[in-house]
Amino acid sequence: MKRLSLAAALFATLAISGCGSMDIEEFEGREPKLVLEEFFAGQTRAWGIFEDRFGNLRRQFKVDIEGTWDGQTLTLVEDFFYADGEIDQRIWTLTKTGENTYEGTADDVTGIARGQTAGNAFTWSYNLDLEVGGRTWNVHFEDWMFLQEDGTMVNRAYVSKWGFQIGSATIFFQKDDAAADIQQSGADLQRAAE
């Protein structure tokens, strides 16, 4: 009887978590409208953290992004600077395949990444070769990005292997001019307080 109860509880948990997944269409019409190639054109800076499945902070990082758009292809050169001193680079090539759909590739991405925008949201799904403890794991990423009214974009990425979530990343993106404005505002507030 205990086995049946445990199996039923596991099934219920999986069913509930499956029902809770977001649908990109839910964000249609929400503002500000996210146009990926406009947001990422030029210089963008991002700050992020990676947590394991237990909520333990594993990594902190900053990313400098240079984006170019040629009318069909968005190229993103991402330079990662980790708190532990590691430096890495990923170069994304995203092709616009429809009014709101994209496909992308990068050296450490296996296969084709696919994404779609609606309203202020972008969802992005891909498999990535990730270095973990001296070994390479092929993991699956589900990214959800949401553009905010002040121009900040919030990204929540869920990382899984063999269908089980192993971690998540939270990343905030800002255009470099917006980041400079915030820094200047902070400096002005500090001077005023003195």
Structural features, described:
- This protein is α+β, with helices and mostly antiparallel strands.
- The protein has a single domain (32-189), classed as Calycin beta-barrel core domain (Lipocalin, Beta Barrel), CATH 2.40.128.
- The chain contains three helices and ten strands.
- It has helices at 2-19, 36-39, 176-193; strands at 42-52, 57-69, 73-82, 87-96, 101-105, 109-118, 121-132, 135-147, 153-161, 164-175.
- It has a ten-stranded antiparallel β-barrel.
- Strand 7 and strand 8 (135-147) form a beta hairpin.
- The longest helix is centred in the first third of the chain and has 18 residues, at 2-19.
- The protein is globular.
- Residues 1-20 and 182-187 have low confidence and may be disordered.
Major sheet: 10 strands, antiparallel, barrel
**In which order are the strands of the major sheet placed?**
1-2-3-4-5-6-7-8-9-10
CATH topology: Lipocalin
Q: What's the CATH architecture name?
A: Beta Barrel
**Topology as a string of helices (H) and strands (E):** HHEEEEEEEEEEH
Q: What is the general shape? A: globular
Q: What is the CATH homology-level superfamily?
A: Calycin beta-barrel core domain
How many structural domains can be distinguished in the coordinates?
Answer: 1
Count of alpha and pi helical runs: 3
Strand content: over 45%
What is the name of the CATH class?
Mainly Beta
Oligomer: single chain
* Helical/strand content category: alpha+beta
Task: Compute the average pLDDT.
Answer: 86
- In whole angstroms, the N-to-C terminal distance is 69 Å
The proportion of residues forming helix, as a percent range, comes to: 10-25%
Rg to the nearest angstrom? Answer: 19 Å
Total number of strands: 10
Question: Which residues sit in consecutive blocks of at least 5 with pLDDT less than 50?
Answer: 1-20, 182-187
